[in-house]
Design a protein that fits this description.
heterodimer, A: alpha+beta, Butyryl-CoA Dehydrogenase, subunit A, domain 3, 3 domains, four-stranded mixed beta sheet, four-stranded antiparallel beta sheet, B: alpha+beta, Butyryl-CoA Dehydrogenase, subunit A, domain 2, 11 helices
């Protein structure tokens, strides 16, 4: 949708593009390109670069150390970032817990936590899902019982990503089970090193990514770590979900993957022709590109319609559905380009040239396996369809 | 001989005893443990399978087998698919046996060893730039006196590090993509003029890249006629395609069953997942895909009488087109309906999904199948 950039937008876009071109280290770029976790060292190294530039928190207001950018600028920044294969902001710090404090934190909480959220001194992780509460998140049972000036937590949380590199958790806990399940949920923040909190690793099917299950046994959290009001956690959680509006369709990421797919398929020679021109593959690439164009235009319309005031409604769920399907399809097609070599497993970073195309193609298989998760997490595609059926179509 | 589409009594007994054996002797944990290093499979399990007659079920009686046909092959492969059994069976039996059947006395004797669990054979189908084109053979076979010297590179050869014998296609004349001039050599593994780098495959099996460094071969090592290996190789690959499709059927049926079982017990929103109509319909579609695949595979394999049997290319192409599509759907849906749990390494679901994903990229991908289908229209209107 670059064609609709204003003169200002275009200048801004070029500034961002030039910065990434000059400042993004090659090892970081290659790691992001593989689609695998960057790891704390790399994440911290890149975060420092962004802090120095003042772009570490693109979505935050200026008074808290953010950029203060308009929605349009945030959108352009995100597009250019993914096109350059630059890492995203520290997702739980910048996109989740930061906005949580900014909206619901007391001045004392913000003074205590926010500077370290922005600096990346603390890495945060989430504590939402539980072994028995996935799609039905509001049924969560992990209990936080108030005793004097502390909450005492017992129960379990699951699917914490990067938890072994995190210092702090923000989570949803059951503080009252007398009423409707959505009532009686509260947001608490706590150090992962808390006494009584133990972690069990869960290896994902790609054989690389590890998530965790956290067990809480009489974990004590001071009451000043309650964010917002007690038992109002469900509306806070819903607020956090609306913040995903900019990332939800992942158009930029898909655009970058599509570009890479075409490069790989163009470089792979079969007989005398690039594989890209094989009729079957080309038809599938054309289909996914058509889907992506339609998604991009829909996202643009939803985000920037002057009559919607930048508020995304429940119809934005279709962005998540379409966006995840397209991303999954792209990983699948990239694996197809690897063809007979998709079986080769990569356990190290792709080696540098001369065989770069093929070495990325081998990673495509892991990527394909790992990306089955994106239509499951953050509200599965089934839940998204329920939302649209109920809240948009009135069924 | 008139072939039957349906299984007879003996075949049903074979199916049950093999299923029982695998249940008692194999698990996904075994697959992971063995896949991590060479040889990549359990020699003990291999011996056990030989003892219950599973390795020789498809091989001719004169080679120590049971003289079964395609249905025996189907039964074995489907059971292996369901159990996620890791082994060089696909390479040694459906892929290698048609080639060995065309060889001399030494090759015929190898069949007997395969049936007895005493030999592993693999076939080096893929070259670095060849993708799925069997005619793309850059490896050279230079005449040297009465023998040959083979030089070139093969990639992703299944269970090559475990193999006792390897079939190597090499070019004795012509250019890389010519149909004529490909000669198949049966050579003993574990030799100095053959170097090998082995790795775990994405679905938990083993494979290796081979470097042939002026590898010495004799005239008597040639399978079939010199320069005319392509046709033989294509028939072997087509049989292996059908066998692998039977493996996919086993994996699909297992996935469909475990998804239904999970949906019956997992509760969200105060009801089981299985009570949601949207999910019920998807599981019905999974069932239809798995069962139709089973029928299609059976129709193709019931026509196969043994390793030397002709294979109708139309059967291989259309069966694989159908099964790959079904496997993609069933595998993806099984993970999705299991939700987060389906993403974990702990459950079998993910392992079946990975195996199915890799099968669709073995022997031929969709583009190659479409191309072969197109060629078929030219030759047989």
């Amino acid at each position: 949708m670059e064609a609709f950039d204003t003169t200002d937008d275009r200048a801004f876009r070029h500034e961002i593009r030039a910065f990434f071109r000059e400042s993004l280290p090659e090892d970081v770029r290659r790691t992001v390109m593989t689609g695998l976790p960057t790891g704390r060292e790399m994440a911290d190294r890149w975060h420092k670069v962004m802090l120095a530039k003042g772009w570490a928190a693109p979505t935050w207001p200026k008074e808290h150390g953010g950029t203060g950018w308009s929605l349009k600028r945030q959108y352009i920044f995100e597009q250019e970032r993914v096109a350059a294969w630059a890492p995203g902001p520290l997702i739980f710090n910048i996109d989740m817990v930061g906005p949580l404090f900014i909206r619901y934190g007391t001045p004392a909480q913000n003074a205590r936590f926010l500077p370290r959220v922005l600096s990346g001194e603390d890495h945060w992780c989430q504590g939402f899902s539980e072994p028995g509460s996935g799609s039905d998140l509001a049924s969560l049972k992990c209990r936080a019982v108030r005793k004097g000036d502390r909450y005492v937590i017992n129960g379990a949380k699951i699917w914490q990503t990067a938890v072994y590199e995190s210092d702090m958790m923000f989570g949803l806990f059951r503080t009252d089970s007398s009423g409707r399940k959505q009532q009686g949920i509260s947001v608490l923040v706590l150090p992962l090193a808390s006494k009584g909190l133990s972690l069990r690793p869960i290896l994902l099917l790609d054989g690389i990514e590890r998530v965790a299950q956290c067990t809480f046994e009489d974990v004590e959290v001071p009451v000043e770590n309650l964010i917002g009001e007690e038992n109002q956690g469900w509306s806070i959680a819903k607020y956090l979900l609306t913040l995903e509006r900019l990332g939800i369709a992942e158009v930029g990421a898909s655009r970058a993957c599509l570009g890479r797919l075409k490069t790989l398929a163009g470089a792979e020679i079969r007989g005398n022709e690039p594989l890209l021109l094989e009729p079957t593959l080309l038809k599938e690439i054309a289909d996914v590109e058509a889907d992506l164009d339609a998604l991009e235009a829909t996202e643009y319309r939803f985000l920037f319609d002057p009559q919607s005031n930048g508020e995304l409604g429940p119809e934005s769920s279709i962005l998540k559905i379409q966006g995840t399907l397209i991303r999954q399809r792209l990983t699948e097609l990239t694996m197809r380009v690897a063809g007979p070599f998709a079986q080769e497993t990569a356990t190290d970073l792709p080696s540098s040239a001369p065989d770069e195309a093929r070495s990325f193609a081998a990673w495509a298989t892991r990527h394909y396996f790992n990306f089955r998760k994106i239509s499951i997490y953050g509200g599965s595609n089934e839940i998204q369809r329920n939302i649209v059926a109920k809240a948009v179509l009135g069924l | 001989m008139q072939q039957s589409f349906f299984l007879g009594e003996d075949q049903r007994i074979f199916r049950e005893s093999l299923a029982r054996w695998l249940e008692e002797n194999w698990s996904v944990r075994e697959r992971q443990r063995h896949g991590a290093e060479d040889p990549g499979f359990s020699r003990e399990a291999w011996k056990g399978l030989a003892e219950i007659g599973a390795l020789g079920a498809f091989l001719p009686e004169e080679a120590g087998g049971a003289g079964g046909g395609g249905l025996e092959l189907m039964i074995a492969m489907e059971a292996f698919g369901r159990a996620l059994f890791a082994s060089p069976f696909l390479s040694s039996v459906p892929l290698a046996s048609p080639l060995l059947s065309a060889g001399g006395r030494q090759a015929q004797a190898l069949l007997e060893k395969i049936a007895g669990g005493a030999a592993i054979v693999t076939v080096a189908l893929t070259e670095p730039r060849g993708r799925y084109d069997l005619n793309h053979v850059e490896t050279r076979a230079e005449r040297r006196g009465k023998g040959y010297r083979l030089s070139g590179t093969k990639r992703g050869v299944p269970y090559a590090a475990a193999a006792d014998w390897i079939v190597l296609p090499a070019r004795s004349s012509g250019e890389a993509r010519e149909g004529h001039g490909i000669t198949l050599f049966l050579v003993e593994a574990g030799r100095k003029d053959l170097s090998l780098r082995s790795h775990t495959t994405a679905d938990g099996g083993r494979a290796a890249d081979l470097d042939l460094r002026a590898l010495a071969a004799e005239e008597s090592d040639v399978l079939g006629e010199p320069g005319k290996g392509l046709e033989l190789l294509q028939r072997a690959v087509d049989l292996a395609i059908l066998a692998q499709c039977a493996e996919a059927v086993g994996a699909m049926r297992k996935l469909q069953e475990s998804t239904v079982a999970y949906a019956k017990t997992r509760e969200q929103f105060g009801q089981t997942l299985g009570s949601f109509q949207a999910l019920q319909h998807r599981m019905v579609d999974m069932f239809a895909a798995a069962e139709s695949s089973a029928s299609r595979v059976q129709a193709a394999l019931a026509r196969i009488t043994g390793p030397a049997s002709p294979v109708d290319p139309r059967d291989a192409i259309l069966t694989k087109l159908y099964v790959d599509k079904a496997a993609r759907f069933v595998g993806q849906e099984a993970v999705q309906i299991h939700g987060g749990m389906g993403m974990t390494d702990d459950l079998d679901v993910g392992h079946h999904f990975k195996r199915l994903s890799m099968m669709a990229l073995t022997f031929a991908d969709q583009g190659k199948l479409d191309e072969r289908y197109r060629d078929l229209q030219g030759s047989r209107p």
